[in-house]
Please model this.
Amino acid sequence: MQIEKFYYDNKIVKAFGLATIVFGIVGMLAGLWAAIQIYYPASSLNLAPTTFGRLRPLHTNAIIFAFVGNASFAGIYYSLQRLCKARMYSDKLSWMHFWGWQAIIVAAAITLLMGKTTGKEYAELEWPIDIAITIVWVIFGINMLGTIIKRREKHLYVAIWFYIATWVTVAMLHIVNSIEIPVSFLKSYSWYAGVQDALVQWWYGHNAVAFFLTTPVLGLMYYFLPKAANRPVYSYRLSIIHFWALIFIYIWAGPHHLLYTALPDWAQSLGVVFSVMLIAPSWGGMLNGLFTLRGAWDKVKEDPVLKFMVVAITCYGMATFEGPLLSLKNVNAISHFSDWTIAHVHIGGLGWNGFLAFSILYYMIPKMWGTDLYSKKLATNHFWLGTIGIILYAVPLYWAGFEQSLMWKSFTPEGQLKFQFMETVNSIKPMYITRSIGGGLYLVGALMMVYNLYKTMAKGSFVANEAAEAAPLVKEAHAKKEYWHRVIERRPVTLLVLSLIVVAIGGLIEFVPTFLVKSNVPTIASVKPYTPLELQGRDIYVREGCYTCHSQMIRPFRDEVSRYGEYSKAGEFVYDHPFQWGSKRTGPDLAREGNKYPDSWHYNHMYDPRSMSPGSIMPQYTWLLDNALDTASTPAKIRAMRTIGVPYPEGYDLQANKDLMQQANSIAANLKKDKIETPPNVEIVALIAYLQRLGTDIKAEPEKNVTTTITTNK
Amino acid sequence: MKFIHYLEKISGVEILGLVSLAIFFLFFTIMLTWVFRTNKQTLKSISQIPLDN
Model:
């Protein structure tokens, strides 16, 4: 057989690797800045683009899509070529993928800071960017499949399975969750409303964790761990079970983000059951990883690459143990909306994703530059600093989440709520400070890595095209012993289609009925569409990212009902495109904010929250007092809403602004009574209109429909 | 095109639970049979792939 000579493309790996480093540092800085704002709000500089509500989406998007995304691409381009014994299918596609992705990241950063957001967590990017993502993703897919098809290795190693499943599932999630109706170039409304939107969003959100932050990284683990340890994975059989079980079960688990909410019960239960089951494949995978190192622990002591991997895999195990725990209803009752969730995701983010990314960088860069790591000692220091950083980050937040949640739920013997919201905030400020120190240490460690890798590159010389040779794949004549399993293991397209079927089943069963059964979302007659002014106000609420700190979802618990009012009903959200239930209560729930305070209170509070609530950690929104309201957009917004089923009357788009001005004038007059002079056509007026509307509709409902049943949670 | 009002009713959400269970068992039975019937030698050689490049 003729041996073929060919070259691995290291240049593309280098490019993605450098992008990982750059955007990793940027994403971490944004996170640290946001963390500091939580206890020191003035550090937002009181500029709109850098307030918490805009910085937080920038942080999450940068870490997920820019840092972990680029790291995964670097690792995939490196490992895929070697596992297939082939150069990437097309250099041109590789570079289109690279530059396309980086352009998306830059566009994302700019638009998010401008406040252009869909208001759906981790899917905040507006529609033109969504389309760009789809195109680049397809390019990546063609390039990957092309490489697999022209491979010189008969079998598809399990890492490649994970890559394929990642590709197909992310494509599905992204498309389904991004269905939105454009209003203008950078503004759109989610096609779905309320409960449906929430369900689709968390089906997406949860599976973004699964298929963007977990499966590609597991693929990397299955390649780089055996490589670094120089021994095959502990059990290849287990890795196959890990793969299928994981992708099958993960997709069902999304509704665990919506326990006790207005989501139908059966969907919640389904989410819980599957979340609990998830522990099996996850731990199977973790043990498979750790057992690979059995008898090789002396190597771990020596090699920073393996050190990082061991902690990464351990954190994967911790996060996937905690995940099912958090999805149990009685644990969730405490953890949800609190800092517990933030701690949980950072075990995953800092530990699993971050450390695995560091380990593959420490592995690939010396290899591609044909040299050794500049300083093992520095890398070991990075390792310890990072590990301490993770602990200092997570432990205080677990504590804060637990403490604040219990305080929220405390009653005096007389049956009154024991603590004001601000008291609960004040008691956890020290924990917020400690967590930012932990994050700071982690960042310093990452900077040490940058220096170390820079020095490594400087002392080596980069091999852009790495020579390799292998025999071409010969078409086998039908061998007698052609077992049926080979059909899957050797055919990438079959594998792709099977993966798609497996992940689609869960998704379908989960949310098709919600769309179909009208009775699943009982409508409430008194719930009416927003007025044009309220709609504009709501868009400002979305733009400023108020949902990053405020929920709009009162769960049926005694304490929540006492603190916030009547619990939320599914039917109240039927006109909410997008839903704004939120996921974190850094501030109080706003679902029944309407008519709680006078207009002037909100005016003063938005100007300076601390003047109304001493010690508040909410940012100042001074610009809302001056910004003119963009009324030119009203007709287009009404038309878009009509298209997606909000029952504004025919032709209302043209009259909307008249109603808008009328309501704005009356709010301005109201403010004047409290000695506040403001023109009616400023943004704050619209925002006040929206806040005053929140949760008031059902109060017009006859008594019998709003009786409260309270779930007592222990 | 109003998602909220597509089909007015679908009878028996209960069947979903059964369908889910059935799919679940079917899936795992097939997958496990497949995995355990695979030749050990083949698996071993596949697991060597990352090491010989």
In short: Chain A touches chain B through 52 residues (CB under 8 Å). Confidence is low (pLDDT under 50) at residues 703-714 of chain A.
